[in-house]
What we know:
Layout: H1 2-7, H2 21-39, H3 41-44, H4 47-74, H5 87-101, H6 104-123, H7 135-156, H8 166-188, H9 213-233, H10 235-250
Amino acid sequence: MVLRELWMATEELKPFALFDLPHITALAIFALIWLSIVIWKDKIRNPKSDRLCRIFMFIFLACQQLLFYIWKLDAGASLATALPLHICGFSIFLCLIVLVTQNVKLFYIIYYFAFSGTLQAVLTPNMEGYNYPHFRFFQYFAGHLTIIIVALYFKVVKEYKIKLDSLLYAFVTLNVLAAAAFAANIMLDTNYMFLLHKPDSFSFLSILAPWPYYLIQLEFLAVIFFLIIYSITNIKDLTFSLSSFLKKVFA
């Protein structure tokens, strides 16, 4: 009975309380997993361990997504509202592909999406009123945090490099996804990527200009965020290049 109540939709929908105990606990669990990957990266890098980790992440991601669709249908919602047209929903399917194929170009997209859109979604969740201990709370954080973990895994364990052309791959994909999301919003009366209006709960979008002006702001912010992600990821190489350049100039 208790499990059924946690699964079912509830009439007591409440705004998500940012950084309360359940939120902090979810972030702390993520931090522990991230530290574990960093500490044991050499052991995980073993071909057998790497394969087992990727299989586990694939099964975990696939199961949480399947359960999300089952919950949507059980709650009487249309799957038209659960298409992979949000950045995070799209990233989950990219993660499933990359965990199998280990495709570098798809990893680029996941990496930028994970540390821009997904990270923002984790810090300021749009939970639609389904808070802890509802199923949606656990599924939301399980899916979103695993996207970031997959990005970290391929960067730290697999040692994938973030090259300059990765910026173009990510930015073009983002805009193609936005075009598809906008078309779906018009046809299905949805709000994928929050292109028709801002989310009801507080988020980064809350501090931007009203619609439609914040869409233009988001384009510029995407470029800025992607450049910041690229710079932080490659800080050592950029510092070395700058140092070498200054030595040549002032030699």
